[in-house]
Design brief:
430 residues; alpha+beta; BirA Bifunctional Protein, domain 2; Rossmann fold; 3 domains; five-stranded mixed β-sheet; 37% helix; binds histidyl-adenosine monophosphate
Length: 430
């Protein structure tokens, strides 16, 4: 017997029945981001490895440990994208978008890849919905972007989420903070994990987002980045908070928030859900400003700010809500005899063309078994087609939730179904 081949660990299949909640999140994002003027961008899932090394940073867990990197047949080092910000920036630069318009607003959704230790809400292929705004350095842009997320979460019905904000300063003020941080971490060197002892030499900020509990405790008691901000960075952060107030957005200032990517300057933020379903993977989204990235990638000096939401985590939260997202059929067509099978097939086809969602069992079978399947399908109505219905052109719509059958002419089924008020979905048979 041939051996069964399973999917790759940490990469999930999404089947009908489960996909509907994903489609709900995606279509809500499309509608909402469109309202804010964000246009969709699609970039390849594979990029030059150097793109991530130079933007996300060599010392980050993402680039240092988690990237799926391989050599193609031409000997180039390529990586499956671990995130969407650097690819979007690469596309922005490559297409000289800054020469076409001063401000661009883009969003994207799709799979990202990180070789992570798996648990609930943390996968090796996961999906992000992200948005990036290019060309505006003002705090109003940061605030508007957070408003996108707030309204997106509201539209999904996810309200139990807290916005954390922080500022990481810029090239001007961060060195002083770095120096203080290194001094502090050196004094606690023995308490840090082996990785962090190395990070301390090469990129001390990364110690702050180490997942090791001991390191987190040390980092938590360290110097406060906000006390080191230079005047322009402080003004930016103060104005951002005022703007969030104007928008009525609630937030918490969290000076320990550093994010796991190197490209941020000034504003960083995360949306954290309090639902136990996510366990430690409670960050449903995060982002920040990255005013230096474009230049660092050989592009123009264009400021930018963005975020990405973890679609898998949003879906986990929505599933906890117990709402159903599957659209049930309007009608199930059953045939009373084999001679009506072709007409049943044709009627189903015509009604679908007229816009109804119709279920029809292509296997035929006894009327009893078809009625069982009609029950299970959750259809609003069942129509039985037999010799008599075909002769008379008249049939009956049986409401599956109970009630009197509704007489209907076979050429007026769509209109009649549409005219019936929606009843609650019957409980499908198990
Ligand atoms: P990130 O914080 O690395 O940021 O990822 C954003 C979100 O993606 C996380 O908050 C989380 O919900 C989700 N996520 C990350 N890793 C996984 C995983 N292994 N499994 C499931 N979900 C995951 C970024 O990627 C930045 N590009 C965000 C950004 C956009 N900054 C500026 N613009």
């Amino acid at each position: 017997m041939s051996q069964k081949i399973n999917g790759v660990k940490g990469m999930n299949d999404l089947l009908p029945g489960e996909i509907e909640v994903w489609q709900f999140v995606e279509s809500t994002a499309r509608t909402l981001f469109g309202r804010f003027g964000y246009g969709e961008v699609r970039t390849p899932v594979v990029e030059d490895t150097a793109l991530f090394v130079r933007s996300v940073g060599e010392e980050t867990d993402i680039v240092g440990k988690e990237m799926y990197t391989f050599e193609d047949k031409g000997g180039r080092s390529l990586s499956l994208r671990p995130e969407g910000t650097a690819p979007a920036a690469r596309a922005y630069i490559e297409h000289s978008v800054n020469n076409q318009e001063p401000v661009s607003r883009w969003f994207y959704m799709g799979p990202m890849f990180r070789y992570e230790r798996m648990k609930t809400g943390r996968y090796r292929q996961f999906s992000q919905i992200g948005a990036e705004a290019y060309g505006a350095k003002e705090p109003a842009q940061d605030a508007e972007l957070m408003d996108v997320v707030v309204q997106f979460l509201e539209a999904l019905g996810l309200t139990d989420v807290t916005l954390n904000i922080n500022s990481l300063g810029d090239d001007n003020c961060r060195p002083a903070y770095h120096a203080k941080l290194v001094e502090y971490l050196n004094a606690h060197r023995e308490e840090l994990c082996a990785d962090c002892q190395q990070r301390l030499e090469r990129n001390p900020l990364r110690v702050l987002d180490c997942k090791n509990e001991k390191c987190q405790a040390v980092a938590g008691a360290g110097p406060n980045v906000l006390e080191f901000l230079c005047e322009p960075c402080r003004a930016h952060f103060t104005d951002l908070q005022r703007k969030l107030g104007v928008l009525g957005i609630r937030y918490v200032v969290n000076h320990r928030l550093v994010r796991g990517l190197d490209y941020y300057t000034r504003t960083v933020f995360e949306f954290i859900a309090s639902h136990p379903a996510l366990g430690t993977a409670s960050t449903v989204g995060g982002g920040g400003r990255y005013d230096k990235m474009m230049k660092g990638l050989g592009g123009p000096d264009v400021p930018a700010v963005g975020f990405a939401m973890g679609l898998d985590r949003l879906v986990l939260l929505l599933k906890e809500g117990g709402k159903t997202f599957t659209q049930r059929p309007d009608l199930f067509i059953a045939v009373a005899d084999e001679g009506s099978q072709d007409q049943g097939l044709a009627l189903a086809s015509r009604l679908r063309r007229e816009g109804l969602k119709v279920d029809f069992d292509t296997r035929g079978g006894s009327l009893k078994s078809q009625m069982k399947r009609a029950d299970k399908s959750g259809a609003r109505f069942t129509l039985v087609l037999g010799e008599q219905e075909r002769q008379s052109g008249q049939a009956k719509l049986k409401p599956m939730a109970g009630g009197e059958p509704i007489p209907v002419a076979l050429d007026a089924v769509a209109a009649t179904v549409r005219a019936q008020p929606e009843a609650p979905a019957p409980v499908p048979a198990v």
